[in-house]
Design brief:
CATH topology of the largest domain in chain B: Alpha-Beta Plaits
CATH architecture of the largest domain in chain B: 2-Layer Sandwich
Shape of chain B: elongated
CATH superfamily of chain A: Transmembrane di-heme cytochromes, Chain C
CATH topology of chain A: Fumarate Reductase Cytochrome B subunit
Strand content of chain B: 15-25%
Strand content of chain A: under 5%
Number of strands of chain B: 10
Order of helices and strands of chain B: EHEEHEEHEEHHEHEEHH
Strand order of the largest sheet of chain A: 1-2
Distance between the termini of chain A: 15 Å
CATH architecture of chain A: Up-down Bundle
Largest interface: A-B, 47 and 44 residues
Number of helices of chain A: 8
Shape of chain A: elongated
Order of helices and strands of chain A: EHHHHHHEHH
Strand order of the largest sheet of chain B: 8-1-10-9
Radius of gyration of chain B: 25 Å
Structural class of chain A: mainly alpha
Number of domains of chain B: 2
Helix content of chain B: 25-40%
Oligomer: heterodimer
Distance between the termini of chain B: 64 Å
Radius of gyration of chain A: 20 Å
Number of strands of chain A: 2
Amino acid sequence: MSNYIERFSTSERVLHWIVTASFFTLLLSGLGLYSRLFTGYFTFFGGGQNAILVHKIGGVIFFFSSLYMYVNHKKDISTFDQDDKEWVSQQGGYLSRKAAHFNIGKYNPGQKLFALYIAAATAVLGISGVFIWMPLLFPRWIVQISLLSHGLMFVGSIMFVIVHVYLATIGNPGTIDAMLYGDVKKNWAKKHHPKWYKQTTGDNQ
Amino acid sequence: MADTINQATRKGFLVDTSRCIGCRSCQVACKQWNKLEADKTSNKGTFENPRDLTPALYNRIKFIEKETTGGISWLFFNERCMHCGDAGCMKVCPSPGALFRTKEGIVAFNKDKCISCKYCVSACPFNIPRYGTDDKVSKCNLCTDRISGGMTPACAKACPTETLKYGVRSTLIATAKAAKKTLYGESDLNGLGVVYALEGPPERYGLPEKPSIPMSIFIWKDVIKPLGILGFWGSIGAMLLHYVTIGPKKIEDEEGGGHE
């Protein structure tokens, strides 16, 4: 009997890495636009004008792939049950070394919140991005608000992404497997997502 | 920012609107010196022409028309880049050297360094920068090439009524004050490089009473930007701290688990 169960299908994984790649492309090409402290990052793209071009292309890819990812997972990430409340009240056990057990489904509330934030950020960054792309076609106040919200949502995104990367790698050993090969260890699933484990395997141990 | 300005030696304009006769010599001289193409305009039933600044029109006379008994009276206003002491365009420009301050205190531009982001359009308190078909910034640069050689800007040189007076800014202001003029732009935005003696309240000229960098631009650049950098490193620091204090959530080994 296999020690592994599938967590993400091939297409889910590919989509995730398209979103990831476009996110980091946007980060690198956008840094120089964020502040003159980071003007040096323009050189990766051969100057500011090219960085802007890359940012626009990356933006379109990120917008649609991230939006598609949200639509695919809308049901899983936007409902919170009683077990989720328990998780929240104990911060998912992340603030203590004591072993904590929660009856969590496919995603815990932290993951759901992250996914919802990224979905909202995708919408705001995408829409404000259009105004910033063609500022002369819109009233100045719209473009001004867009510049502000583009910066604000980016800051939230990068902070969330740092936490996301930490928790998905060294913070929770075994988690990255889900995004690399798609399969996770059964013990991992029992520990982190017992309700999901039972639903998928029918195993009630 | 490395945008320092010497108020004692700073050069600028004093525009005494009461002297202006609306001849538009300044518009023409500017076009000629800066080799700007003519713009095609249309008659909209007013003497004002063109109706707005364009990529090829760095300064213009705005006609503020008022109907009086038996005729029309005008206020004339020379509209152009104000060369703000605290310039919104320079604050947001991500490309070093695209917008820069000259030793005279003028906000000049270099099209070769402009990356066409157009942030300056959003950040200008006076809605001055324009982008043409070359997709590069254009606005009044106070004839940097002339003034760096000790010459007077083309518009001021051509002005027949001395409405546009170019010189050391503090001297121009002192002279105007001695003549009991009410000045616009003396101290706003760290002092405008173009100071006006208006014939009425600023609103009549379509000017903000107290010009400032748009609030959203201020929040973007002076609040979100620094807090964002703090948030980035703070997040990384918090994760590292979590790892070495509370540590990762390890899963039990299959063999070592033994509690089933």
